[in-house]
Amino acid sequence: MEASMGREQDIKAITDLIRPVFHGLYKAAEENLKTRSLSVPQRGMLQCLLEQGAQTVPMLAQRLLVQRQFALRLVNELERLELLEREPNPSHKRSDRFRLSESGARLIAEVLAIEANVSAQALSQRSDEELGAAARVLSELRSYFSAEGSR
């Protein structure tokens, strides 16, 4: 019973900490993006395109866990900023795919490098085992809630 109570407390602690950590990361990202005229959601879409390659708006919405209309708005904004480009979609003539432009790829690489430095500083005292365990726990939560959203 005592081990069970510790587990419940750990699960509660993890879920209670996610929101303030998210807000802290969001605030740090906003600060980093101020001089780049880019919002945090736009930054997320650029990162998704960098990591996943060209995608349609519905694919982006699903990967970013946002509504299609919001994803479309982001795509339109980023296209106006010339940070992404349209390309034909071989599997659907009426639904273009979007990919990073050269300037979009440069910008997101720069932003991610700065963020990686900040994160490395913040977690410099953690062991490789602790970091691996944290990554696995957060990945499990992401998978669970991603599946929940699509039901």
UniProtKB/TrEMBL annotation:
It comes from the Bacteria. InterPro entries: HTH_MarR-typ (IPR000835), MarR/SlyA-like (IPR039422), WH-like_DNA-bd_sf (IPR036388), WH_DNA-bd_sf (IPR036390). GO terms for biological process: response to stress. Residues 11-143 form the HTH marR-type domain. PROSITE patterns: HTH_MARR_2 (PS50995). GO terms for molecular function: DNA-binding transcription factor activity. PANTHER family: MARR FAMILY REGULATORY PROTEIN (PTHR33164:SF99), TRANSCRIPTIONAL REGULATOR, MARR FAMILY (PTHR33164). This is MarR family transcriptional regulator. It comes from Rhizobium vallis. The lineage of its organism: Bacteria, Pseudomonadati, Pseudomonadota, Alphaproteobacteria, Hyphomicrobiales.
